Amino acid sequence: MRFLSDQPHPSPDQVLYHRFTVDLGSGDIRAEEIPCQNLEDVLGGFGRSFQILENHDVKEAYHRNNPLIVNTGILTGTTVMTGLRTYFSAYSPLKSSNKGLPAAIWSAGSGKFGSILKWTGTDEIIFNYRSPTPVLALIQENADGPSLTLKPAHHLLGLDTHEKIMALQKEYPDAHFAVIGPAGENYKNVYYAAVAMSTVNQLKSGDDKCRFAGRGGMGSMMGYKNLIALVAQCKDKLGKLTPTVRDVNREIARGPGSKKFRDQSKGGLGGTWSNYQPLQKAYVLPENNFRPKGHDLPERLYRENQEAAYVIKDESCFRCGINCHKNIYERKPDGSKGEFRAKFDYEPLDLLATNLGIHDAEQALRLVRIVDNMGMDSISCGTTLSYVLDYNERHPEHSIFNGATFGQFDAIFELIEMTGRGELPEMGRGVKRLSEKMGEPDYAMHVKGLELPAYLPDTNPGYAWAIAGGHMSMATFLLLVMENDTTLDYWVKAITERGLYQVRDDLIGSCKFAGMNHAAALQAIQGATGLELSEDELLAAVRRAYLRGLKLERKQGYEMGDYTLPAQVFEEPNSKLETPHFITREFFSELRDRVWAVFDPEIQAL
Amino acid sequence: MTVRIALPPLFSERIGGRGAVDLTAPTVRAALVKLGESYPDLNSLLWRSGDVVNPFLVVFVNDQDIQSHDGLDTPLHDGDEIVVVTSLEGG
Known about the structure:
CATH class of chain B: Alpha Beta
CATH class of the domain at 2-233 in chain A: Alpha Beta
Number of strands of chain B: 7
Strand content of chain B: 25-35%
Shape of chain A: globular
Strand content of chain A: 15-25%
Mean pLDDT of chain B: 93
CATH architecture of the domain at 2-233 in chain A: 4-Layer Sandwich
Structural class of chain A: alpha+beta
Distance between the termini of chain B: 37 Å
Number of helices of chain A: 23
CATH topology of the domain at 2-233 in chain A: Aldehyde Ferredoxin Oxidoreductase,  A, domain 1
Mean pLDDT of chain A: 96
Number of strands of chain A: 18
Oligomer: heterodimer
Shape of chain B: globular
Number of helices of chain B: 3
Strand order of the largest sheet of chain B: 2-1-7-5-6
Number of domains of chain B: 1
């Protein structure tokens, strides 16, 4: 980005960002500096990309008119800790309205790719149309600015995510990468393929420790465009650490906001994996397709119960002091660290183990790893799988696919492999389409066509207003457990006044695990870029960006009936849960009216 | 005893973005009660049924979990820092 003014509060058009527009069909590449039109443009991420998508009429995701936008946030590549995010935005092949139109979505990931991309001088790339042959995009820094070149990528086809990254490292030793796996290559039959991004640890150790932009099928979009990889190559250009940013970083590394995600040996609570205990105690840990049984089997996967069998290391993305990655290694007879096995973050662990009836760590490791290697979103893959297992348990005489039911590891593993290879299109196209085809949508765990993360819909009516993933774009998913409030007033406020600001980090380029409050985020922006904003200005921009997401849903045919929860929540309350059953159809209907009464006038005023 | 209570975003978003609150209290319990009196919007996060602290909170004093001391009755000293953390966060 380039500031034309040295004023601390320039007008948006005094801030320029660098964009490549790539015509993958013809190979034409245009580079330009674009003046920002508003604060959302300045902040970046989906705040900018959704304004671009707003101007595209797209009826099918796999269509030449659907652009894939890769961009960063204002903090990406700065000295602010966790300022590492890369955003992928497009109309999703997965998330769609009941009318069948694709919804706009973004997905974010860390690693070091975003920083390198930013250091080449590139803020955004729009990939239009489709390449006739497999290509990779090489983004480099030259004497006269950034350059982008399309190169053949046939040699990468068939490799898994990690293999692609390691192969590319041999060709471009000082670069970082964003790649798709076999699932992305089989985009026609896999709508939830992810984008894998390289980490410093991965390139150094040779272990498959990618980070993923998983939600909404952005890897499938890369596959559709025949764009197999992005390579960003540039020397490290980390700026000078200012005293302000140093303070912010100290707060991120040691403050209360990230304490949950830090290692226990560093005074933290041990990361998202440690959600297992409190959720299991209240029997709201998703099990067997989001239907907790009220027994203690899930406790086998508590971290404390795996410490003896494995070496568990808390590792990090580039320069991050939080160390949220919980990487599992074999434990050698002498107690030292052996071979890397997989990572155990809460979402993949629950959705690819406990929620599939798997309670064995060794099996869980293999399931988590195969999904990563295939390059699929573990949330969408896991939640679609749990529906299949549930269906088969309900219909032993008319089972689907290989007949797998809960706890059948070998059969589940086979389903994942076949899905990643594109051999099970019904499974690969997500739970909404599959459940509608089977005629049993009531226990399909999705909202608006996107599979639910590992928090029960029975506890969160706010899912209906999440715009890009149930827990990443509406912060209401743990409130019932935390506060136990079931009043309408509470939930209206939670959604319209607080929950939506969860998406702030999806503009500015920082990670939610940094736990920055808004004051700290403003301090980070000022310290890293000199830009001074008020909290009101920041929050107004975030709110506009969020509301634009709802507006885009309407543009794609979303109607009142799309904003709902799986019918099982209303019709079959689970008596095992220790949380109250309060989401009745009447409650939800009234909530919907009151939430829209707040949002509707604001959407119309955009 | 004048102490500082550092709060996670779930709390600070309800009290105008304030990330920390300074107050005077002899014990952790008294400090949390006072916090709730000053900011009633936090009471539903802090307490369950009367004076039982929310089981999904973990409270530290000077980086030590109060459960390894006297729980809510842990005495405070001038300059102590209390950190309130939610044991549930997503991602």
